[in-house]
Amino acid sequence: MLAALLTSTTTTAMSTKMFCQQRGVTLRFLAATTTTTSRRFNSSSSSTTSTTNHRPMSSLATSPADEDFEHQQQQQQQQQQQPQLIHPKMVLILGKPGGGKGTISTKILQDFPAFRHLSTGDLLRQHVRNQTELGQQAKDYMDRGALVPDHLMIHLVLHDATTPQPPGSPYATHDDLTTTTTSMMTLIAPCVLLDGFPRNVAQAQALEECLAVDHVVNLNVPTETIVERIADRWIHPASGRVYSYSYQPPRKPGVDDVTGEPLVQRPDDQPETVRQRLAAYDEVTAPLVDYYQEKGILQTFTGTQSDVLYPQVKQWLIQQGF
Questions:
Q1: Is the pTM of this model over 0.90?
Q2: How would you write 250-265 as a 3-class SS string?
Q3: Is 233 a catalytic residue?
Q4: DSSP 8-state code for residue 160
């Protein structure tokens, strides 16, 4: 088991590194084309203009100072010709299934319009539905019943996080770009709320080959609170109406308010199934929490209600400068 995990980790890191190299992506990536051009320094010019130290043109000797100046000029020209690098702030949100992560994410987006929500599950389905090149590659794995490999998921994250958005987007401000060209009239979200990936340490390490996570919000909701919340959920299969006996009960126990038909509980919502799912999450994610904790970028919020947790999350985000 350990050998297989190490092999998977190594393969993921290697494939991700190759992908990043092929794409020309660095840790602080996201190129925005620059329109600044500068004249090349021509040391062999036949112009009658004197040299930098005002020596007469008849002097053919080149001093070390001249060579240093030429080297500095060439470096400046190369830097001006390279794309300007822009790095959106990445905030990863972690939380158990049914722990209110979706509710907290929605509130963050409402209060912090600079954020763009990037849910890898939704993103994957969108690419498959739109039959993009990445979506077709992912679908090949899904049709075979195989997991979409980490390097492809990272490719999806990078593609979406670095895709310029139209000027009408709520976070689109031209001030976010170092330079702007007539062809670069679309902009990048300055902040991205990453949800659903990475799920383990191997994926986190592979992601860092291309993209740095700046902050991690970890929602720590007790397992039994989630079990009670989910097990309390009953549905009407035909319509999809959902009832909860704790906060939105049916008028008559066990039957749908509209049709009077019986309500059912999905197998995935049964208490034992929920506990098993949460235990699996803890087993995989606990090392990831420790990984980001050691990096000093993780903040854990513990509680049982989203309405109580979110004000703490909001205040912390404000303190981080969002």
A1: no
A2: CCCCCECCCCCCECEC
A3: yes
A4: H
